[in-house]
Amino acid sequence: MSEFNNEIKNIIIRYESAKYNFFKWRFESSFLNKFSLAIGFACLTGLLAQFRFYLPYTPVPVTGQVFAVLLSGVILGKWYGGVSQGLYAGIGAAGVPWFNGLKGGMDVLSGVTGGYIVGFIAAALVIGWFTDRYVRSRSFTSLFSIMLLGIVLIYLFGVVQLSLVLGVNAQRAIELGALPFIGVDVYKALIAAAIAAAVTPRTAYGNEIDSK
Questions:
Q1: Beta bridge mates, 63
Q2: Residue range 46-69: average pLDDT?
Q3: Which one of 39, 48, 134, 150 is CB 3.0 to 4.6 Å from 64, fit for a cystine?
Q4: Displacement of CA 165 from its chain's centroid (Å)
Q5: Is the per-residue pLDDT at 55 higher than 80?
Q6: Which domain CATH number covers 17?
Q7: What sign does the CA torsion over 189, 195, 191, 99 have?
Q8: Is residue 209, in this structure, part of any structural domain at all?
Q9: At what angle do helices 140-166 and 170-177 cross, to 10 degrees?
């Protein structure tokens, strides 16, 4: 029993060390490495965009993109999380068909779902800023709260553009572009926060202001 307990302890120690080493490497890594990670998360966002379904009363689909957005801020940090979503938006606008439904082009970015894509950038930046700056933000409860804030930002950008494109008032835009998705997006935030809490170190790997 003692040997088993020691083995479990060693596995936990190795796991904690691996988490710390990855985030330390990411923080200190070169531009090329960070940019490569950002491209990887842009591709993941494009892949998850294809997991979608439509509700009968809104032109905005439910997709898996939000899940990738929430994790990009945590894994890539305050700038490159946003860069990953900026690449997703920019490359898709240039014509690469990785928006939902294998679509690409500026017409998607300027259409009913374009505001959400812009909101992805803001959400990833905010989530990454908190998790890179504060060690205490890496608990499950804190990460879940930060991810809910990110979802609110996505809704804000999405609903504003939806209102402009459809020519409807704010209340109607919220009914079409936010309320139908709250439940599923909270569920995504719960899963993403659980994963993020499991993979982020609880010790400083950079210049966190609460490292002591």
A1: 52
A2: 86
A3: 48
A4: 25
A5: no
A6: 1.10.1760.20
A7: positive
A8: no
A9: 120
In the predicted structure, residue 212 carries a pLDDT above the cut 70: no
Please indicate, yes or no, if residue 212 is contained in any of the structural domains: no
- Is residue 61 one of the residues assigned to a domain? yes
- How many Cβ atoms from other residues are within 10 Å of residue 31's Cβ? 8
101 residue type, one letter: G
Please state, in angstroms and rounded to a whole number, the distance separating the CA atoms of residues 73 and 98: 20
> Residue 1 pLDDT > 70, yes or no?
no
Phi, psi of 16 (to 5 degrees): -60, -40
Q: What is the pLDDT of residues 66-116, one digit of tens each?
A: 999 999 999 999 899 999 999 999 999 999 999 988 999 999 999 999 999
Count of beta carbons in the 10 Å neighbourhood of residue 17:
11
Report the predicted TM-score, pTM, of the whole model to 2 decimal places.
Answer: 0.91
Residue 36 in domain: yes
Decide if 99 contacts 87 (C-beta within 8 A). Answer: no
Please state the domain count of the chain: 1
Domain that holds residue 152: 2-199
* Three-point CA angle 149, 194, 207, nearest 5°: 65
Q: Which residues are bridge partners to 53 per DSSP?
A: 62
What CA–CA distance (Å, rounded) separates 38 from 151?
Answer: 20
CB 42 within 8 A of CB 71: no
What phi and psi values does residue 98 have, to the nearest 5 degrees? -125, 10
